[in-house]
């Protein structure tokens, strides 16, 4: 029977590089992680005097390990990097090199990284594509449900910013931000004391909880996340985040998608008008459409829209107008903004053979037209196209991307508080997902290169 004894040798010739398997995930990720620009970007935030700081690249590499392998605690991350050879190799740490203390992460996160928006910049250069999908997922905030105030009791003006915790200060800072305070004038039913920017919601169909929304804009070819945004968990904020991400992607990567697929939450007339008229993006977005009738009478789609003459033409060929008056002042006849109503005359409809199929209970037929009905018409046209089923199938990819951080990376509940904490966590999770994705795609691209 053998007995394992402590080795007698005091000195070893040891190379970490040779002990990391060739097919280790971190080796693949290392190929795509470009952190050379970090020092340049952070240079203005460092003093030229004093002792040298911990290498910011080391902090970033450790954060990437944490989010790639679902190590949420920074204290545990330091222990794992200390013990794991592959992690040491990825962090460029020798066997004797000291791992930074876990408190360092907090200092970097709330200081230099956040000031320089560093975490978002790392995702640059990862993707290029033309068909995008957007969606949002609720992530539970790190708060106690009981530590909150009802709507009537919550008074923002009573908060002293100088004495408030960091998360409350951040809440005060984003009160005019369209992703948070300015997204809607409606006050939430309850507000958390420890993280007031989180949203009280029952949208998960269970007991109401405080949440943030994780918004992803993805390239549908390879499900690579193009941009990420943290918002309140309400529809207006999520739609605003989608527009912000599309514009930011164009600004940073010079990429504007030809088409965008999303669920009904993004199908408001205002958002469709923004996509189609201001950004020339085809929306594959289902509409909330109540114009289709189910009682067998004519629906609005049976009426033809005549843009040039500002009128509808009914199935009997009659004209439905906003007004039939001849005003002496032509300006009074200018089309109104907002929702418009078009109708035929009572005499025409009463003499019509199709009246029982059109307006059996009223004297004449009315058709309503929303302010951006032309944009809604374009979305209806896209929904009838042959490509729509393929686009909707690609939309599932973004839903699958949300399942991964929750189940594998342990991002079912946030660990950091405040809008900036949520933003950092979502961005790092997205970077980790992108790096894992690229590591998996690499063999495919290699095959493609061989084929070419
Ligand atoms: S009832 Fe009036 S609006 Fe309807 S089909 Fe007949 S003429 Fe046209």
Features:
452 residues, six-stranded mixed sheet, binds iron/sulfur cluster, 13% strand, 13 strands, alpha+beta, 3 domains
How would you concisely characterize the structure shown here?
By secondary structure, the chain is of the alpha+beta class. It has helices at 16-19, 25-32, 37-42, 56-68, 74-83, 85-90, 103-116, 118-121, 166-173, 235-253, 269-278, 346-350, 355-358, 373-384, 388-407, 418-451, and strands at 131-140, 148-150, 190-192, 199-201, 209-219, 224-231, 259-261, 282-284, 304-306, 311-313, 319-320, 340-343, 366-369. It has 3 domains: 16-121, no CATH class; 131-287 and 382-427, no CATH class; 300-364, no CATH class.
Total count of helical runs of at least 4 residues? 16
Helix-strand category: alpha+beta
Low-confidence stretches: 121-125, 444-452
Instruction: Give the amount of beta strand, in percent.
Output: 5-15%
| Helicity level | 25-40%
How is the biggest beta sheet arranged? 6 strands, mixed
In sequence order, what are the helices and strands, one letter per element? HHHHHHHHEEHEEEEHEHEEEEEHHEHHH
Quote the distance from N terminus to C terminus: 58 Å
For the residues shown, what is the average pLDDT? Answer: 82
Number of domains: 3
The number of strands is 13
The distinct bound ligands, ions and cofactors come out as: iron/sulfur cluster
Alpha carbon gyration radius: 29 Å
């Amino acid at each position: 029977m053998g007995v394992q004894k402590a080795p007698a040798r005091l000195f070893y010739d040891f190379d970490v590089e040779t002990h990391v398997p060739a097919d280790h995930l971190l080796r693949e990720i290392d190929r795509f992680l470009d952190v050379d620009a970090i020092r340049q970007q952070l240079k203005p935030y460092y003093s030229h005097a004093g002792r040298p700081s911990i290498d910011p690249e080391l902090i970033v590499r450790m954060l990437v390990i944490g989010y790639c392998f679902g190590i949420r605690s920074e204290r545990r991350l330091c222990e794992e990097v200390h013990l794991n050879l592959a992690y040491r190799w990825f962090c460029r740490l020798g066997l004797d090199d000291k791992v930074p203390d876990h408190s360092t992460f907090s200092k970097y996160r709330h200081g230099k990284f956040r000031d320089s928006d560093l975490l978002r910049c790392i995702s640059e250069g990862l993707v290029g594509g033309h068909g995008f999908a957007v969606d949002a997922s609720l992530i539970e905030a790190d708060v106690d449900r009981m530590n909150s105030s009802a709507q009537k009791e919550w008074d923002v003006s009573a908060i002293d910013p100088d004495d408030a915790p960091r998360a409350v200060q951040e809440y005060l800072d984003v009160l005019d931000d369209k992703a948070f305070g300015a997204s809607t004038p409606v006050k939430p039913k309850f507000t958390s004391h420890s993280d007031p920017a989180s949203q009280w919601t029952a949208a998960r169909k269970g007991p109401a909880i405080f949440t943030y929304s994780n918004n992803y804009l993805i390239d549908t070819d390879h499900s690579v996340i193009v941009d990420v945004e943290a918002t309140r968990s309400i529809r207006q904020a999520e739609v605003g985040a989608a527009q912000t991400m599309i514009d930011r992607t164009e600004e940073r990567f010079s990429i504007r998608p030809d088409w965008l697929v999303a669920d009904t939450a993004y199908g408001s007339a205002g958002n469709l008008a923004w996509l189609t008229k201001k950004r020339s993006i085809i929306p594959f977005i289902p509409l909330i459409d109540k114009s289709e009738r189910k009682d067998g009478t004519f629906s609005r789609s049976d009426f033809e829209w005549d843009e040039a003459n500002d009128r509808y033409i009914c199935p009997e060929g009659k004209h439905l107008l906003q007004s039939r008056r001849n005003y002496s002042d032509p300006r009074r006849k200018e089309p109104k903004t907002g929702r418009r109503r078009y109708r035929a005359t009572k005499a025409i409809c009463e003499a019509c053979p199709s009246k029982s199929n059109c307006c059996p209970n009223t004297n004449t037929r009315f058709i309503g037209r929303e302010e951006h009905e032309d944009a809604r018409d374009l979305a209806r046209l896209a929904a009838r196209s042959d490509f729509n089923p393929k686009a909707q199938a690609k939309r599932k990819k973004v839903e699958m991307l949300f399942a991964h951080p929750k189940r594998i990376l342990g991002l079912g509940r946030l660990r950091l508080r405040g809008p900036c904490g949520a933003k950092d966590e979502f961005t790092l999770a997205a970077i980790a997902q992108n790096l894992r994705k690229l590591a998996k795609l690499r063999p495919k691209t290699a095959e493609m290169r061989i084929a070419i």
